[in-house]
Amino acid sequence: MADKLNGRIALVTGASRGIGYFIAKQLAAEGAHVIAVARTVGGLEELDDEIQAAGGTATLVPLDLTDMAAIDQLGGAIHERWGKLDILVANAGVLGVLAPLGHIEAKTFEKTMSINVNATWRMIRTVDPLLRMSDAGRAVYLSSGAAHSTKAYWGLYAASKAAGEAMIRSWANETVNTPLRVNSVNPGATRTAMRALAMPGEDPDTLPRPADVAAKILPLLYPEVTRTGQLFDVPQNRFLSYRVPE
Ligand code: NDP
Fold this sequence. Notes:
The protein has one domain (9-238): Rossmann fold, CATH 3.40.50.720. It is built from 7 helices and 8 strands; from the N terminus they run E-H-E-H-E-H-E-H-E-H-E-H-H-E-E. It has helices at 18-29, 41-53, 68-82, 106-133, 155-174, 193-198, 210-217; strands spanning 9-13, 33-38, 57-62, 87-90, 138-142, 181-186, 231-233, 238-241. The longest helix has 28 residues, at 106-133. This is SDR family NAD(P)-dependent oxidoreductase.
């Protein structure tokens, strides 16, 4: 086990599968204690087994991110147990539906925005004071190329990801005079359940594995990070935007 993140407490949403699973696993391998959030207990338990087998530690939090009251309680619970939070990975997300805007059911629109936008904000709100307490607080939001695309039928998902990125830019400027550093990431097309749902005709073997994508995201969570309010593009392996804090 490496020890780059020894003693750090890291919360990862959507840790039961896909990109979030591997970010959580790799954070634990670097020495962080991982608070793993998702609905699927089986996926969380598998993660826990893998982390323990590698000598790491995790706390499993089975939680539905549509339950805003439960999100609100997380900050207090983390403060009581660990007294701080060093890392937030706001990774959980859903595709909603790919359809013309005029054909999307209100229920689907609202649920997608609730998970991708409202829950992200509620998570930020509950952990913001804890991250500010850390001497090297780091947050990463999993965005998408869709946030900047103009593709037909992707409007719902694109709007939700653009909203998330906007929050992150603003949060970065709110915290620019603290040690906290917050950035967005576009992971690019990745071999996960979400991608298969979006592109059912695609051969998954042609896509990068979530473990490899997670490994490119991990350095954004290290204490030495100085950038904030920016967007890291995994396929291009570089920051796409540099926004001087206003
Ligand atoms: P997956 O569908 O594989 O995993 C999504 C994760 O989010 C799961 O752990 C799931 O857990 C969790 N989640 C979904 N809904 C809820 C909910 N209501 N409550 C709690 N947890 C929930 O997605 P990916 O790994 O592909 O995507 C991760 C992130 O990366 C997403 O934000 C996505 O938008 C983004 N992204 C992915 C791309 C790709 O090609 N894969 C491309 C661009 C961006 P559970 O179901 O157990 O609750």
